[in-house]
Design brief:
This protein is of the alpha/beta class. It is built from 9 helices and 12 strands. It has one domain: Glycoside hydrolase/deacetylase (TIM Barrel, Alpha-Beta Barrel), CATH 3.20.20. The longest helix is centred in the C-terminal third of the chain and has 19 residues. The relative contact order is 0.18. The structure holds zinc ion. The site of zinc ion has 5 residues, from loops.
Protein backbone atom coordinates (compact mmCIF):
# COMPACT_ATOMS: atom_id res chain seq x y z
CA UNK A 1 0.00 0.00 0.00
CA UNK A 2 1.29 3.44 -0.83
CA UNK A 3 1.31 5.72 2.18
CA UNK A 4 -0.35 9.03 1.65
CA UNK A 5 2.27 10.99 3.54
CA UNK A 6 5.94 10.85 4.37
CA UNK A 7 6.03 9.06 7.72
CA UNK A 8 8.93 9.00 10.11
CA UNK A 9 10.72 5.84 11.05
CA UNK A 10 10.50 6.95 14.63
CA UNK A 11 6.76 7.33 15.20
CA UNK A 12 7.35 9.05 18.49
CA UNK A 13 9.62 11.68 17.01
CA UNK A 14 9.22 14.94 18.84
CA UNK A 15 10.31 18.22 17.40
CA UNK A 16 12.61 20.42 19.45
CA UNK A 17 14.97 22.03 16.97
CA UNK A 18 15.35 22.34 13.23
CA UNK A 19 18.77 20.78 12.63
CA UNK A 20 17.77 17.05 12.67
CA UNK A 21 14.74 17.78 10.48
CA UNK A 22 16.31 19.82 7.70
CA UNK A 23 16.48 16.81 5.40
CA UNK A 24 12.95 15.61 5.93
CA UNK A 25 11.54 19.13 5.53
CA UNK A 26 12.88 19.02 1.97
CA UNK A 27 10.57 16.07 1.32
CA UNK A 28 7.37 17.52 2.69
CA UNK A 29 5.81 20.38 4.61
CA UNK A 30 5.76 20.15 8.41
CA UNK A 31 2.75 20.95 10.57
CA UNK A 32 3.85 21.59 14.15
CA UNK A 33 1.62 20.66 17.10
CA UNK A 34 1.68 22.82 20.22
CA UNK A 35 -0.70 22.78 23.18
CA UNK A 36 0.28 25.27 25.87
CA UNK A 37 3.00 27.91 25.98
CA UNK A 38 4.43 28.45 29.45
CA UNK A 39 6.16 26.83 32.37
CA UNK A 40 4.03 24.05 33.90
CA UNK A 41 3.28 24.14 37.62
CA UNK A 42 4.92 21.36 39.64
CA UNK A 43 1.51 19.71 40.09
CA UNK A 44 0.85 19.39 36.35
CA UNK A 45 0.83 15.74 35.24
CA UNK A 46 1.24 16.17 31.50
CA UNK A 47 4.19 18.54 31.51
CA UNK A 48 4.99 17.51 27.95
CA UNK A 49 2.04 19.62 26.75
CA UNK A 50 3.92 22.79 27.75
CA UNK A 51 6.56 24.56 25.71
CA UNK A 52 8.39 27.42 27.42
CA UNK A 53 8.05 30.84 25.71
CA UNK A 54 11.83 31.08 25.26
CA UNK A 55 11.95 27.72 23.46
CA UNK A 56 8.95 28.67 21.31
CA UNK A 57 10.67 31.88 20.28
CA UNK A 58 13.93 30.04 19.58
CA UNK A 59 12.06 27.61 17.33
CA UNK A 60 10.44 30.48 15.41
CA UNK A 61 13.83 32.17 15.07
CA UNK A 62 15.31 29.01 13.53
CA UNK A 63 12.51 28.76 10.98
CA UNK A 64 12.84 32.40 10.06
CA UNK A 65 16.63 32.19 9.67
CA UNK A 66 16.21 29.14 7.45
CA UNK A 67 13.86 31.14 5.21
CA UNK A 68 10.58 29.47 6.20
CA UNK A 69 7.21 31.21 6.23
CA UNK A 70 3.98 30.02 7.77
CA UNK A 71 1.30 28.64 5.46
CA UNK A 72 -2.43 28.53 6.02
CA UNK A 73 -4.11 25.15 5.91
CA UNK A 74 -6.68 26.58 3.51
CA UNK A 75 -3.90 26.67 0.95
CA UNK A 76 -2.78 23.11 1.63
CA UNK A 77 -3.00 22.14 -2.03
CA UNK A 78 -0.27 24.57 -2.94
CA UNK A 79 1.75 24.43 0.25
CA UNK A 80 2.69 20.77 -0.11
CA UNK A 81 5.60 21.81 -2.33
CA UNK A 82 8.51 21.72 0.14
CA UNK A 83 10.67 23.92 -2.09
CA UNK A 84 8.62 26.87 -0.94
CA UNK A 85 9.89 26.45 2.62
CA UNK A 86 6.59 26.68 4.38
CA UNK A 87 5.41 25.31 7.69
CA UNK A 88 2.18 25.35 9.65
CA UNK A 89 1.81 26.17 13.35
CA UNK A 90 -1.14 24.53 15.10
CA UNK A 91 -2.32 24.79 18.71
CA UNK A 92 -4.72 22.19 20.11
CA UNK A 93 -7.35 22.87 22.80
CA UNK A 94 -7.57 26.69 22.90
CA UNK A 95 -5.41 27.20 25.99
CA UNK A 96 -5.34 30.77 27.23
CA UNK A 97 -1.59 30.37 27.77
CA UNK A 98 -1.17 30.51 23.99
CA UNK A 99 -3.07 33.77 23.79
CA UNK A 100 -1.01 35.19 26.67
CA UNK A 101 2.42 33.98 25.66
CA UNK A 102 2.56 33.10 21.95
CA UNK A 103 0.85 36.03 20.22
CA UNK A 104 3.67 38.54 20.62
CA UNK A 105 6.28 36.07 19.30
CA UNK A 106 4.11 35.15 16.33
CA UNK A 107 3.59 38.83 15.58
CA UNK A 108 7.31 39.58 15.90
CA UNK A 109 8.17 37.03 13.20
CA UNK A 110 5.13 37.76 11.03
CA UNK A 111 3.94 34.17 11.45
CA UNK A 112 0.32 33.02 11.65
CA UNK A 113 -1.15 29.99 13.38
CA UNK A 114 -4.38 28.06 13.83
CA UNK A 115 -5.98 27.32 17.18
CA UNK A 116 -8.32 24.31 17.41
CA UNK A 117 -11.10 25.19 19.84
CA UNK A 118 -13.37 22.95 21.91
CA UNK A 119 -16.65 24.64 20.94
CA UNK A 120 -18.62 24.05 24.16
CA UNK A 121 -15.75 25.09 26.41
CA UNK A 122 -14.92 28.58 25.12
CA UNK A 123 -13.86 30.59 28.20
CA UNK A 124 -14.04 27.38 30.26
CA UNK A 125 -11.51 24.87 31.52
CA UNK A 126 -9.83 21.70 30.22
CA UNK A 127 -12.67 19.54 31.59
CA UNK A 128 -11.58 16.43 29.64
CA UNK A 129 -8.22 16.43 31.46
CA UNK A 130 -9.54 17.61 34.84
CA UNK A 131 -11.76 14.51 34.80
CA UNK A 132 -8.57 12.45 34.82
CA UNK A 133 -6.97 14.33 37.69
CA UNK A 134 -5.12 16.99 35.68
CA UNK A 135 -4.60 20.56 36.90
CA UNK A 136 -7.06 23.20 35.65
CA UNK A 137 -6.09 25.25 32.63
CA UNK A 138 -8.06 28.28 31.39
CA UNK A 139 -9.27 28.20 27.82
CA UNK A 140 -9.57 31.23 25.56
CA UNK A 141 -12.82 33.13 25.99
CA UNK A 142 -14.83 34.90 23.34
CA UNK A 143 -12.85 38.16 23.51
CA UNK A 144 -9.51 36.30 23.30
CA UNK A 145 -10.72 34.34 20.26
CA UNK A 146 -11.85 37.56 18.58
CA UNK A 147 -8.47 39.19 19.28
CA UNK A 148 -6.73 36.05 17.94
CA UNK A 149 -8.72 36.32 14.70
CA UNK A 150 -8.07 40.07 14.41
CA UNK A 151 -4.34 39.35 14.67
CA UNK A 152 -4.64 37.35 11.42
CA UNK A 153 -4.71 33.86 12.93
CA UNK A 154 -7.26 31.13 12.24
CA UNK A 155 -9.50 28.92 14.32
CA UNK A 156 -10.65 25.37 13.70
CA UNK A 157 -12.82 22.80 15.48
CA UNK A 158 -11.61 20.33 18.09
CA UNK A 159 -15.20 18.98 18.59
CA UNK A 160 -17.75 20.18 21.15
CA UNK A 161 -16.34 18.47 24.25
CA UNK A 162 -12.92 17.01 23.27
CA UNK A 163 -14.56 13.63 22.70
CA UNK A 164 -12.68 10.45 21.82
CA UNK A 165 -14.58 10.07 18.56
CA UNK A 166 -14.01 6.39 17.77
CA UNK A 167 -15.19 5.31 21.21
CA UNK A 168 -18.53 7.13 21.29
CA UNK A 169 -21.78 6.39 19.52
CA UNK A 170 -21.48 7.35 15.81
CA UNK A 171 -24.53 9.61 16.15
CA UNK A 172 -22.83 11.45 18.95
CA UNK A 173 -19.60 11.63 16.95
CA UNK A 174 -21.54 13.18 14.08
CA UNK A 175 -22.95 15.77 16.48
CA UNK A 176 -19.47 16.57 17.85
CA UNK A 177 -18.12 17.08 14.32
CA UNK A 178 -21.07 18.88 12.69
CA UNK A 179 -22.37 21.03 15.57
CA UNK A 180 -18.96 22.30 16.66
CA UNK A 181 -18.46 23.70 13.15
CA UNK A 182 -21.83 25.45 13.18
CA UNK A 183 -21.47 26.77 16.74
CA UNK A 184 -18.06 28.30 16.06
CA UNK A 185 -19.22 29.78 12.75
CA UNK A 186 -22.34 31.32 14.36
CA UNK A 187 -20.41 32.71 17.29
CA UNK A 188 -17.39 34.14 15.50
CA UNK A 189 -18.74 34.81 12.01
CA UNK A 190 -15.90 33.05 10.17
CA UNK A 191 -16.00 29.83 8.13
CA UNK A 192 -14.65 26.85 10.07
CA UNK A 193 -12.73 24.83 7.51
CA UNK A 194 -10.33 22.84 9.64
CA UNK A 195 -10.74 20.03 12.14
CA UNK A 196 -8.48 18.36 14.69
CA UNK A 197 -9.18 14.84 16.06
CA UNK A 198 -9.01 14.91 19.88
CA UNK A 199 -6.22 12.55 21.08
CA UNK A 200 -5.42 12.03 17.39
CA UNK A 201 -8.15 9.43 17.57
CA UNK A 202 -9.71 8.64 14.17
CA UNK A 203 -10.88 5.82 11.94
CA UNK A 204 -12.06 5.85 8.35
CA UNK A 205 -15.72 6.41 9.27
CA UNK A 206 -14.81 9.36 11.49
CA UNK A 207 -12.63 10.81 8.73
CA UNK A 208 -15.55 10.47 6.30
CA UNK A 209 -17.88 12.32 8.67
CA UNK A 210 -15.39 15.18 8.83
CA UNK A 211 -15.37 15.40 5.04
CA UNK A 212 -19.18 15.17 4.90
CA UNK A 213 -19.50 18.02 7.42
CA UNK A 214 -17.80 20.33 4.91
CA UNK A 215 -14.36 20.75 6.47
CA UNK A 216 -11.40 21.09 4.10
CA UNK A 217 -8.71 19.51 6.28
CA UNK A 218 -8.23 17.50 9.46
CA UNK A 219 -5.04 17.01 11.44
CA UNK A 220 -3.94 13.86 13.27
CA UNK A 221 -1.10 12.95 15.63
CA UNK A 222 0.53 10.70 13.01
CA UNK A 223 4.14 11.77 12.73
CA UNK A 224 5.24 12.87 9.28
CA UNK A 225 5.33 15.71 6.79
CA UNK A 226 2.75 16.58 4.12
CA UNK A 227 3.35 15.88 0.45
CA UNK A 228 1.20 16.40 -2.64
CA UNK A 229 -0.42 12.99 -2.16
CA UNK A 230 -1.36 13.48 1.48
CA UNK A 231 -5.02 12.91 2.35
CA UNK A 232 -6.21 16.34 3.59
CA UNK A 233 -8.43 14.65 6.18
CA UNK A 234 -5.60 12.77 7.88
CA UNK A 235 -2.76 15.27 7.81
CA UNK A 236 0.32 14.16 9.77
CA UNK A 237 1.98 16.52 12.23
CA UNK A 238 5.09 16.86 14.35
CA UNK A 239 4.56 17.12 18.06
CA UNK A 240 6.66 19.82 19.67
CA UNK A 241 8.21 18.58 22.85
CA UNK A 242 9.16 20.58 25.86
CA UNK A 243 12.92 20.11 25.97
CA UNK A 244 14.12 17.83 28.69
CA UNK A 245 16.34 19.10 31.44
CA UNK A 246 19.78 18.42 30.12
CA UNK A 247 22.96 20.01 31.37
CA UNK A 248 22.55 22.51 28.55
CA UNK A 249 19.04 23.63 29.55
CA UNK A 250 20.10 23.81 33.16
CA UNK A 251 23.07 25.96 32.26
CA UNK A 252 20.92 28.17 30.05
CA UNK A 253 18.64 28.68 33.02
CA UNK A 254 21.23 29.61 35.59
CA UNK A 255 24.07 30.91 33.45
CA UNK A 256 22.32 32.09 30.25
CA UNK A 257 25.24 34.31 29.21
CA UNK A 258 27.47 31.25 28.70
CA UNK A 259 25.45 29.84 25.79
ZN1 LIG B 1 -6.84 18.20 22.36
Amino acid sequence: MRLSYRPFQNKHANYIKLAPYRGIFKEGVPILTYHKIGEPAETVRMKSLYVRPALFERQLTEFQRAGFQTAKLSHWKSFTNPNRRQFVITFDDGSNSVFQSACSSLHKFGFSAIQYLVADLIGGKNEWDIMNGEVEDSLMGESEVRAWLSAGHEIGSHTLTHARLTRIDPKQAREEIFSSKKKLEDRFGVPIRHFCYPYGNWKQWVRNLVEEAGYETAVTTNAGVCTDITDPFTLPRLNVERSHRTWRTLISRFLPWTL
